[in-house]
Design brief:
- There is one protein chain.
- With about 300 residues, this protein is mostly helical.
- About 65% of the residues lie in helices and about 0% in strands.
- About 30% of the residues are buried.
- The model has no long low-confidence stretch (mean pLDDT about 90).
- α14 (about 165-175) crosses α16 (about 200-205).
- The protein has helices at about 10-15, 20-25, 30-40, 45-55, 60-65, 70-75, 80-85, 95-100, 105-115, 120-130, 130-135, 140-145, 155-160, 165-175, 185-195, 200-205, 210-225, 235-245, 245-250, 260-265, 270-275, 280-290, 295-305.
Length: about 300
């Protein structure tokens, strides 16, 4: 198999020191390989040198095969396998890879975000929402999940309850005991809550009204940012789906590590993957082509006319 791309024949002619008339007459329909072989056989020293340079001179390859032309790069990639195309991705700038995320639908982007590490997902979320917005927009069941998590320290929770207005503390106690709390100050009520058994304490937290519950979780997450990782990934992506458009989500995904973005880009169909790779630096494209896909380079040299 050979790959056909437009070749800079004028450059080859000049490089080999052949007149335009002779070159047109002898080589107009020849491949690069055939031209070099015939000239080398006839004793042209420039042809022998050119044959050697084609294997390791990046600038020469860029010039002969007009790699600055994006159509030529796309033509080359149209004959490449997924495995061959994927070799370009680690060498690309992250900004070019992130741009390629625009080729996915928003639903697909959000599904892929649900598979990244919780820490990385939270980074994206906080590019799109403030912590205050997150607490307000998350379903209450998610706040309950954090407050009742086995990773939550009861002593720390009680400390943060000091930031909650007293009327809400009394409601928490009443929801468990069924008795009205009268003339109790904040510290007394927190002491009462601390004496609840684990199940009663859990119930008191879940029975808290939404507004103070959001305030409590916000206070906890500011002291312990890692708590933000305890919410379900789907809860976060549902927020994005509801309140942000695709362009905003893509922009926020720039905070992801390059490895994460690379794995996502690999899920594009070959034609769209090629469009993304075509954005990379031309010299870097030529370097990867020569060093990591030598079999493709051989097909290009053999097939160009």
């Amino acid at each position: 198999m050979s790959i056909q791309v437009d070749t800079n024949l004028a450059y080859i002619q000049n490089k080999l020191g052949i007149s335009a008339e002779i070159f047109t007459e002898k080589y107009a329909n020849k491949s690069v390989t055939e031209i070099i072989k015939e000239e080398a056989a006839s004793g042209n020293p420039q042809a022998i040198e050119l044959a050697s340079e084609l294997l390791n001179n990046i600038n020469l390859v860029m010039e002969i095969f007009s790699l600055a032309n994006p159509e030529n790069r796309l033509e080359i990639m149209s004959e490449m396998t997924d495995e061959q195309l994927n070799k370009f991705l680690p060498e690309m700038e992250k900004t070019d890879l992130v741009f390629g995320l625009n080729y996915f639908t928003q639903d697909k982007l959000l599904k892929m975000l649900e598979t990244v590490e919780s820490e990385d997902l939270v980074k994206v979320v906080l590019e799109l929402f403030s912590k205050e917005e997150v607490m307000r927009l998350l379903p209450e069941e998610q706040l309950d999940k954090l407050l009742t998590s086995t990773e939550m320290d009861k002593g720390n929770l009680l400390e943060h309850l000091k930031s909650i207005p007293p009327e809400y503390l009394s409601q928490m106690i009443e929801s468990v005991t069924g008795e009205e709390v009268e003339d109790a100050d904040q510290l007394d009520m927190i002491k009462t809550l601390s004496e609840f058994n684990p199940l009663e304490f859990k119930d008191s937290l879940m029975n808290m009204q939404s507004s103070p519950k959001q305030q409590l979780v916000l206070s906890l997450s500011k002291e312990h940012p890692e708590y933000m990782q305890l919410f379900d990934a789907h809860a976060y992506t549902n927020m994005m789906h509801t309140y942000k458009d695709k362009s905003e989500v893509v922009k926020a995904m720039n905070v992801l590590e390059q490895e994460n973005v690379t794995e996502m880009i690999k899920e594009l169909p070959e034609d769209l993957l090629s469009m993304v790779i075509a954005q990379m630096d031309v010299e870097k494209f030529a370097e990867v082509l020569m060093k990591k896909n030598p079999e493709v380079m051989a097909q290009i040299i053999a097939g160009n006319v």
